[in-house]
Task: inverse folding
């Protein structure tokens, strides 16, 4: 089994559109939540979101979109993108620059790309409306490729001339965790030398508001108290979007080209609850299996984990399930890893959440900190015995775990380690 390392990161998120800003937000616990103009109508009970700043993708016509001036997109590329496709393209450019990759290193049969998104409801809705209004033959030829679940995969493979494996993953909030895990497998088993892993979501009215029907969005109108994972009085999550890119490489190849290594991706695990279409198992059974399999894959005991970026979405069922799972895996071994949920700062990014939070864990290892869990006023009694940190700590995690759970009881646990461990 070959070693896998992280050599590049790119961010378009509610807490920053570059690595330096994201690090500052995590260290100083600055959130990206605000009153969201599309939710201002009186008949809409949800008022908050964590939008992407510096981009305007409200128009149906992508040629009207605005984005930071440093990104140059060909018109034919732009026309095939969804809003989160644009975010992902920009995050890809960042990650490539961060990793110092040449065109030959990007485009060859041993470099692949795995993506995760739920597609673009915004593009689907508007393209179908246009088709019904003006007729089938006047519908946009980019309608399908800009909207369906594989939109990130299609567009990024073409734009960056990827020649290795490519695939899109759809397992709700654990999607990008699965994409990372299977990318790890591709490299560790020798099939590929390098993998781009991308997660993205639109984070607009049509991608967030349907969750109100599930009663999982907070009805708070206070951005500073809205997203409160682990708090006794939490009342739902805040929606967000954006894109994050992580570049994985085989260690010796990365070292040969003198790449900066953030962390080693040491292993992962996954399991399903087999319980409910939307709710996590109340005792966290699937997540317990996922964490134990991740630990087993790297031959580490629970005491070796210093920091856990929890899935903890700020919903009652989700938080309780994970807290119970964490206690069963870690407390029985008398281990007390620091635990936080960065969704308190970013909001919940759906299929993007896993890679976003995995990247935060990687930054924690590289930059020597553990991000705090913000906005906790009254800690949930279920958290007793867990080391949930309310402030960012100036401590370096030698081994960090990132958890994700999605619809259908899909669970993924990822472990990253100091490259010198």
Result:
């Amino acid at each position: 089994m070959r070693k896998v390392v992280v050599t590049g990161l790119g961010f378009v998120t509610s807490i920053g559109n570059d690595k330096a800003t994201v690090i500052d937000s995590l260290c100083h616990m600055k959130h990206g939540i605000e009153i969201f103009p599309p939710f201002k109508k009186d008949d809409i009970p949800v008022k908050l979101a964590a939008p992407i700043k510096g981009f305007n993708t409200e128009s149906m016509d992508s040629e009207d979109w605005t984005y930071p001036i440093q990104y140059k997109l060909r018109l034919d590329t732009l026309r095939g993108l969804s809003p989160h496709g644009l975010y992902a393209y920009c995050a890809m450019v960042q990650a490539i620059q961060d990793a110092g990759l040449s065109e030959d290193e990007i485009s060859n049969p041993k470099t692949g790309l795995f993506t995760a998104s739920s597609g673009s409801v915004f593009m689907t809705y508007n393209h179908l409306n246009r088709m019904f209004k003006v007729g089938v033959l006047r519908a946009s030829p980019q309608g399908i490729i800009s909207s369906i679940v594989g939109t990130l995969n299609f567009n990024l493979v073409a734009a960056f001339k990827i020649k290795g494996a490519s695939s899109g993953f759809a397992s709700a909030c654990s999607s990008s965790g699965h994409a990372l895990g299977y990318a790890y497998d591709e490299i560790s088993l020798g099939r590929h030398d390098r993998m781009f892993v991308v997660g993205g979501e639109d984070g607009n009215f049509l991608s967030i508001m349907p969750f109100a029907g599930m009663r999982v969005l907070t009805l708070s109108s206070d951005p500073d108290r809205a997203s409160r994972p682990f708090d006794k009085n939490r009342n739902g999550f805040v929606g967000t979007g954006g894109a994050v890119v992580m570049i994985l490489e085989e260690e010796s190849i990365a070292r040969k080209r003198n790449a900066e290594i953030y962390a080693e991706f040491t292993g992962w695990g996954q399991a399903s609850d087999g319980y409910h279409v939307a709710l996590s198992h109340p005792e966290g059974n699937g997540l317990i299996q996922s964490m134990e399999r991740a630990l087993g894959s790297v031959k580490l005991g629970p005491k070796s984990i210093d920091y856990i970026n929890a899935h903890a979405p700020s919903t009652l069922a989700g938080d309780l399930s994970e807290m119970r799972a964490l206690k069963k895996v870690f407390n029985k071994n008398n281990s007390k890893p620091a635990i936080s949920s960065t969704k308190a700062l970013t909001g919940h990014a759906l299929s993007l959440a896993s890679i976003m939070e995995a990247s935060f864990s990687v930054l924690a290892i590289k930059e020597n900190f553990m991000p705090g869990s913000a906005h906790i006023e009254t800690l949930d009694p279920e958290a007793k015995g867990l080391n949930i940190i309310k402030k960012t700590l100036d401590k370096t995690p030698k081994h960090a775990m990132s958890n994700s759970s999605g619809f259908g009881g899909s669970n993924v646990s990822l472990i990253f380690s100091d490259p010198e461990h």
